[in-house]
Amino acid sequence: MRKVPSQKSSVSWPLVYGAVLIWLVLLIVLMRLFTERYA
Amino acid sequence: MSPVDWVVLLGTILGIVGYGLWTAHRDHSASDFIRGGRNLKWGTIGLSVMATQASAITFLSTPGQGYEQGLGFVQNYLGLPIALILVSAVFIPIYYRLKIITAYEFLGRRFDQKTRLLGAGLFLLQRGLAAGITIYAPAIIVSSILAWPLGPTIILTGVLVILYTVTGGTRTVSLTQKYQMLIILAGMTLAFGYVVHGLPEEVSFGDALYLAGMHDRLAAISFSFDPGERYTIWTGLIGGTFLALSYFGTDQSQVQRYLAGSSSTSSRMGLMFNAVLKIPMQFAILLLGVLLFVFYLFQPPPIFFNQAAITQVSPEIRAPIEARFSEAFQARTSALQAAVVDRNAGQPISTDSRAEIVRLGEEMATQRAAFKTALVQANPAADTQDSDYIFLNFVLGNLPSGLVGLLIAVIFLAAMSSTASELNALASTTMVDGYRTLVRKEGSEQHYVWATRIFTLGWGTIAIGFAMTLTLFENLIEAVNIIGSLFYGAILGLFLIAFFLKKIHGTAAFIGGVCAELLVLGLFFSHLEIGYLWFNLIGCFLAILIALAAQTVLNLQRPVSHG
């Protein structure tokens, strides 16, 4: 029997959203360090 | 501009328009014409969402903002990733499940026809006004700097956009935006490289950052609770999330971009692409402005960056001001060069030397203020803001032939890409939420495609007409934001009720939306001291609270029947 391709997304969205939020926190920390270094 | 610049400028713009017309042959049904055939991949969606948000004025104003006030403005974008996650997790699944074409169609399904028309009407009003400004703002700057006639510049920009938007619809708009955005990013990267390259040999990149920091240009993140401070992490995370949620979740010019995806996964990935890249991109553009500031610490800046305005002040009045300005500049440059030599020799800059540099900078600012006073005396209608002219001034005076043409093309492409999304969305909303619902319910797909084309042409003509009648605003970017903030709050309120308050029905939501909008407009015209960004929040909460109250009253009037 041929397999029917799944319509479901293979992306784990909670993981993606978590990664984006970590990226946001990282950017804020880096920009704050930048501020403290130069401003 | 040299002949090479003209070739690059015209080649780039006509190339994009030609590409747009070439792709405009696939979509035949109204749904395909508006939704773009629903076959776009996430990369195209990501770039198209980015191109819609970044208008020409973004690339003109943001470096100017960095030049004058530093990096703090980047905090305005901190809420954007949070809002995009919310849109991706809550809005997109529902939009896909209901197979809607416009965001306001969702209001119709959840509530009723009148609430849908209210949402669509508010959108048409605010976006219709904003579309005129999107064309006008870059045209006034480019025409002033290059001494081009304003009217034809506006008409040319508008007509080129109308040409491929009318012909190709949503898919063409998104595909052209992909290449427009890639050219824009390439152009801005080259410009960044040239600013760094243009710094004096003895000034390294580290020295440049040091000097920028010394002039308070590198404070990117502030944790201050001082309400007087305009940009802080708190305003960015709270206000920014709110604004971005209204914009990406309910503004059809964005909703239409990501709903053109081949699946909800493409749409969500396109938004996550922006969630990841938008802040670094804005940071880079602001840093470009900061480096321009350092560049003009060593290269003599004009006393006023809008060169066309300089000639409005008579030479007798202008000359002594310019002489004092130039004298202070020369003295400051010498002091800065000595400071850099000291720094490179491992010696800290003395307090006296630092105070002298600051004093000379203040002297230059005083002379600039004197020039602005003279300018207003010569022409009371003159715009005394020149920060939007800084970047193009640098481009024209310092970039090599060819690159100047490319950067002018970047400004036009950015204007065209934002306008295309606006016209596309205005026409779709008029067709789907107005014409197909109220005027002609049973028509052939072909009829609706042609109706959408005519609406695109109509809105394009209105935008050009509005742009032609605009007089010189004090600040155009602010004008766009004020118009948006007056309407976004009530619209977002309606959508949040629709998503999260299931017990509220159509009539109560409609009453909430109308009352909130009237109260926001009342507050705005009462001239109370309220920062315009707060209207987003006020409108949204008023809509929700009034709808809740109205629903309670309606429930009391009509007791629930049992059995």
Report on this model:
With 39 residues, chain A is mainly α. Chain A has 1 helix and no strands. Chain A is rod-shaped and about 45 Å long. The termini of chain A are far apart. Chain B has 21 helices and no strands. The longest helix of chain B has 48 residues. Chain B is globular, with a radius of gyration of 25 Å. The termini of chain B are far apart. The interface between A and B is medium-sized, with 18 and 31 residues.
Features:
heterodimer; A: mainly alpha; 1 helix; B: 563 residues; mainly alpha; 21 helices
Gyration radius from CA atoms of chain B, angstroms: 25 Å
**Helical segment count of chain A:** 1
The string of secondary-structure elements of chain A, in order, is H
Name the poorly predicted regions of chain A: 1-7
Strand composition percent of chain A = under 5%
The coarse overall form of chain B would be globular
Distance between the termini of chain B: 80 Å
Return the average pLDDT of chain A rounded to an integer.
Answer: 81
Share of helix of chain B, binned: over 70%
Task: Compile the SSE list and pairings.
The complex is a heterodimer of chains A (39) and B (563).
Chain A: H1 13-38
Chain B: H1 3-23, H2 30-35, H3 42-53, H4 56-69, H5 80-97, H6 103-110, H7 113-146, H8 150-197, H9 205-214, H10 233-250, H11 252-258, H12 264-298, H13 307-310, H14 315-344, H15 351-378, H16 390-398, H17 403-439, H18 445-469, H19 476-500, H20 506-525, H21 534-557
